[in-house]
Amino acid sequence: MTFTEQQSIEYLTIDGGRVPCSRYGYDSTSCAPVAYAVAVIMEGETGEPMSLDDLDSMMSLVVNDHDDIEYMLREYGTEYGFDWSNYFESGYSDSEWLELVGQT
């Protein structure tokens, strides 16, 4: 089964939660579009339909700041309509991230 972006993001953000150490976002809402983009890339590259397990796996890699996410977006994102530079939370220092997520 293939899921739309909206369905995927709704599923991935059900529980909410902060992600203070990921370059891809600072909470589940900001990380979900990244997980969806990589799941779409994986679906296209493998030919296998996207599943909830795929979304969970991609979200896990995103919130844990895995390098494979960046690789997939940089190498394959454009081919699938994703501009990789839109999927990185940039411009924040570590202390700014902590302040942003209320950890200071």
Describe the structure.
By secondary structure, the protein is mainly alpha-helical. The chain has one domain (5-88). It has 5 helices and 2 strands; from the N terminus they run αββαααα. The protein has helices at residues 5-12, 28-46, 52-63, 67-76, 94-100, and strands at 18-22, 25-27. It has a two-stranded antiparallel sheet. Helix 2 (28-46) crosses helix 4 (67-76). The protein is globular.
Shape: globular
Mean pLDDT: 82
> From the alpha-carbon coordinates, what is the Rg to the nearest angstrom?
13 Å
Distance between the termini: 42 Å
Helix content: 40-55%
Distinct helical segment count: 5
What is the number of E strands? 2
Task: Tell me the series of helices and strands, N- to C-terminal.
Answer: HEEHHHH
Q: Structural class from helices and strands?
A: mainly alpha
Number of domains: 1
Strand content bin? 5-15%
Strand order of the largest sheet: 1-2
Uncertain parts: none
Largest sheet: 2 strands, antiparallel
